[in-house]
Amino acid sequence: MVDDAVVSGGVAGTFEEFFATRFAELSRLAFLLTGSSAVSDEIAQDACEQVLRRWDEVEHPRAYARRAVISGARSWGRRRSRRVSYAVAETDGAVGLDADALAVRDVLADLPVAEREVLVLRFFADLRVDDIASALDIPAGTVKSHIHRGLVRMKKELS
Questions:
Q1: Which of 142, 97, 92, 102 is nearest to 122 (CA)?
Q2: pLDDT tens-digit readout, 28-43
Q3: 35: alpha, beta or left, given left = phi > 0 and alpha = psi -120 to 50?
Q4: Cβ burial, residue 81 (10 Å; 0-12/13-18/19+)
Q5: Regarding predicted confidence, which is higher, 147 or 96?
Q6: Is this structure's pTM higher than 0.90?
């Protein structure tokens, strides 16, 4: 089995190593996609459970888990009441953030879901446009458009 989850000293060979090195990253991704620290760990845990169930079959567990987090965040967003804002005061997620980081988080929260997803995947997960397109199952040109529009909106709001 090929594993893209690299840990210090080599490639992670067990699910336990994968979980230990990737859970926090997956939880942060879920938080950035949902804006809710209350559900981010749950979404990340569900994604890890999906990886565990298919551990022997999955060639790239990190990518598989990332896609599961994206899917989980989307499902949560569809179920969530639209009366509750993405930017609900999440004090536990904001601990240690400076004013600039909080401003970026708040502006990110106000973006349309598609733009927020591509920006988080591009600049937090550090994915290439083609990888984002694959993860979100949309054309690369659409990814580029969402990135451009999202950055224009963020610049406008932050200036």
A1: 142
A2: 999 999 888 889 999 9
A3: left
A4: exposed
A5: 147
A6: no
Question: What is the structure's pLDDT at 56?
Answer: 92
| Contact in structure between 151 and 157 (CB atoms under 8 Å) | no
Q: How many CA atoms lie within 13 A of 156 on its CB side?
A: 8
State the CATH architecture for 1-83.
Orthogonal Bundle (1.10)
CATH topology of domain 98-159: Arc Repressor Mutant, subunit A (1.10.10)
Structure-token pair, residue 129: 């446009």
Amino acid in position 105: R
Q: Strands of the chain (E only): list them.
A: 6-7, 10-11
Residues 6+ apart with CB under 8 A from 12: 3, 5, 6, 18, 21
pLDDT the model gives residue 10? 38
